[in-house]
Give the backbone structure.
Amino acid sequence: MSPSPLKPGSALYLAVKEHIRARIQDGTWKVGDRIPSEHELVGTLKVSRMTVHRALRELAEQGALTRVAGVGTFVAEPKAQSGLTQVANLADEVRARGHRYECRLVAATREPATAELAAQLELQPGDSVFHVVCIHLEEGVPMQLEDRWVNPEAVPDFLTWDFQASPPGEQLLRAIPLDEVEHIVDAVPASSTEAEWLQIHEGDPCLVLTRRTWSRNRPVTWVRCIHPGSRYRLGTRFKVGSQPMAG
């Protein structure tokens, strides 16, 4: 009997996950490929079907695999990912993957600030603010709903910009030197309107990145970037400096 190809030293289901991820990373199984069935993996890896089932289930939940009932398990298209320690430009990320990027303008208006919005932009309730709503698409698939408010004192000509040629965030990064950025991430269910714009179902899980930016100590913009959880993830990697950090 041939030995199991799994690396020793960890729980079996974790070793199965590592084995499958390694085959994906080294190109043995490419995006869209059907991987061996549970029965085949049991025979190859010399583990129980329950162990294989758990490994495949968790890899599917983490977005590495797609399971189709009655058909099989396939290598999933990697989710788009942005870091949290920078102001990411989604258009550049999409183009870097060799995909087609598109920005669709939904609305561009001037509105009176609500009490909440006034507090975020350090204005008075009722003060005029700019409001822009855009949908960002990758290969025609909605990846982000951008709901942005801008302080007219910081960018008085904002509504005259051509957002079809270049998205609002990209133009703001070019026009305004930023001193400070705040990022907050929430997991929320999609509202009916958000679901319609993002082409998902109402209540589907979404990642919402809320960002505030400042320039010369003055708030510039407050924006909610809403991403379908099945298509996007947020993460970062950085070196830890000499300062102590709490986990």
The first helix runs from residue 12 to 25. The longest strand covers residues 101-112. Residues 121 and 219 are 5 Å apart (CA to CA).
